[in-house]
Amino acid sequence: MNIFYALKSVLKSLIARFVKYIISLKSPKNRRIFYKRALAVLIVLVFFGFVGLQVSHVVQEANKRIFVNIRKQYFKSDKLDSTLNGVKSGKNNNVGAKFKAKKTPLKSIDKSKDNSNAQNQNANAIDFSNLWKISTGGAYPQIAGVDASNLRINVDIAKQRVYFYKNNNLIYTMIVSSGINNSTPKGDFKIRHRGYHFYNSTEGMGGDYWVGFIGAKYLFHSVPTRVNFGDYIVEEAQKLGVPASHGCVRLSVPDANWVYSNIPDGTPVHIE
């Protein structure tokens, strides 16, 4: 109760001072002082607002350069940089674009040899800004009817790749984005849940075509969306290929759709 009366007393005092100040503005001298102070405050606010906008612009540009440099480092290991110089703009504007690739028989299950995969056979068709719109490993393999026990998924966080195996043979590689600050759990899991769309109001983003490997908390899913299905956040989507999520594994839209539609429950997942 003492606090209540103290607050009431302070409030009364403030109101009385405010009323007294308003009455004092009847004097031309006091009005001039008031206008000068108001103008000074306005100038300060405009100045700091302008400075804030400039700083925000500089930070955004710095972040873009950082992500470009990081992405180049991840792609350099797969020798994609040199092929990207010849990319023609607009070539991959359609989601799920089909690519013609010369198939090469797989002689090894060594996941470090990405050159045996259609991904590098189609490297000249990859455009960083539209990577999230395409099938990042080229034409998808046919695995309809294959039992989960004959399939395996390996996630390589260091390379930002997901490798798909059938009967211990590497059949497909996807470019992904795992969690920032090593937030993607490592270990052995299994595909158990899936859904068409989700939205996390806490993070302010969701995803399409999700498949869970730890309950419905850690998922493979498309690049981030806003509240509605298909409303993709482009600035987040363009981070594909570097760690960017809160722990899930982000995929391009066609890749996420393929995993959602083709990978059965019970498929083993290994993350390292």
Automatic annotation (TrEMBL):
UniProt-listed GO biological process terms: cell wall organization; peptidoglycan-protein cross-linking; regulation of cell shape
Alphabetically ordered keywords of this record: Cell shape, Cell wall biogenesis/degradation, Membrane, Peptidoglycan synthesis, Transferase, Transmembrane, Transmembrane helix
Signal peptide: none
Active site: H221, C248
Residue ranges annotated for the L,D-TPase catalytic domain, each copy included: 151-272
Domain of life: Bacteria
InterPro entries listed in its UniProt record: LD-transpeptidase, LD_TPept_cat_dom, Transpep_catalytic_dom
GO cellular component terms, semicolon-separated: extracellular region
Molecular-function GO term, any one: transferase activity
Transmembrane segments: 38-59
Pathway(s) the chain acts in: Cell wall biogenesis; peptidoglycan biosynthesis
Name this protein carries in UniProt: ErfK/YbiS/YcfS/YnhG
Source organism: Gardnerella vaginalis
